[in-house]
Specification:
The structure holds 2 protein chains of 2 kinds.
Chain A: E1 3-7, E2 11-12, E3 18-25, E4 33-39, E5 46-51, E6 60-62, E7 70-75, E8 80-85, E9 94-103, E10 112-117, E11 121-125
Parallel strand pairs in A: 2-11
Antiparallel strand pairs in A: 1-3, 3-8, 4-5, 4-9, 5-6, 7-8, 9-10, 9-11
Chain B: E1 4-7, E2 10-13, E3 19-25, E4 38-43, E5 50-54, E6 58-59, E7 67-72, E8 75-80, E9 89-95, E10 103-104, E11 108-112
Parallel strand pairs in B: 2-11
Antiparallel strand pairs in B: 1-3, 3-8, 4-5, 4-9, 5-6, 7-8, 9-10, 9-11
Classes of the chains: A mainly beta, B mainly beta.
């Protein structure tokens, strides 16, 4: 089955750090970009961070809201991407989703959309 | 950043009737290759988002043909030809032309009357 599974969500105190994992199966993980999104309680979807596949340089893009605090990495040998979050604040409380970034058929090489999402993992920041 | 705006934010619908959701972008979503990278996502209650439509009007694998996307430039529409109970949820448009960042509309909540 083609799927993404997130893990690592937790209840954590403000100021602490946390690492989330996103493991893919049923497809060649290394061929795709990996992105993280979040959804705060009762709110919409927010893009956070993206890493290109190594064949496209593996470069990273950050949303302004997380630049300097969040980082992303990937281990294609484990079909896993990681989101490292430092200095967590109460406003970071959300469900975090990873998604597979792919180039659409007939689409431009540098344009990624997100065709496969994980089930999400809950991060709660509270003292 | 490209701002995406959806309307309505709440859409009560009758089973078997059509439903339409509008989405506008603050700038044209036509890319230099001539394609328009506008997607629609469905999020059922308690579930993760699922992409329904990409490049304005292309349905993803397994998406029922009652879902269709249309539009161009800055104005886009998702139409459900005959709403079924399983279509209840929140629908988001997302632009992938001018990134980063990828940006979403606020979401439209579809519910059954």
């Amino acid at each position: 089955e083609v799927q993404l599974v997130e893990s690592g969500g937790d209840l954590i105190q403000p100021g602490r750090s946390l690492r989330l994992s996103c493991t893919g199966s049923g497809f060649n993980f290394g061929d795709y970009g990996v992105s993280w999104f979040r959804q705060a309680p009762g709110k919409g979807l927010e893009w956070l961070i993206f890493i290109r596949p190594k064949a496209h340089g593996g470069a990273v893009e950050y949303a302004a809201s997380v630049r300097g605090r969040f980082s992303i990495s990937r281990d294609d040998s484990k079909s896993t991407g990681y989101l490292r979050m430092n200095g967590l604040q109460t406003e970071d409380t959300a469900v975090y989703y990873c998604a597979r970034g792919h180039v659409a058929v007939g689409g431009a090489p540098g344009i990624y959309s997100f065709d496969l999402w994980g089930q999400g993992t809950q991060v709660t920041v509270s003292s | 950043d490209v701002v995406m705006t959806q309307s309505p934010l709440s859409l009560p619908v009758t089973l078997g009737q059509p439903a339409s959701i509008s989405c506008w972008s603050s700038q044209s979503l036509v890319y230099s290759d001539g394609n328009t990278y506008l997607s629609w996502f469905q999020q059922r209650p308690g579930q993760s988002p699922r992409r329904l439509i990409y490049k304005v009007s292309n349905r993803d694998f397994g998406v029922p043909d009652r879902f269709s996307g249309s539009g161009s430039g800055t104005d886009f529409t998702l139409t459900i030809s005959r709403v079924e109970a399983e279509d209840v949820g929140i629908y988001y448009c997302m632009q992938a032309t001018h990134w980063p960042p990828w940006t979403f509309g606020q979401g439209t909540k579809v519910e059954i009357k």
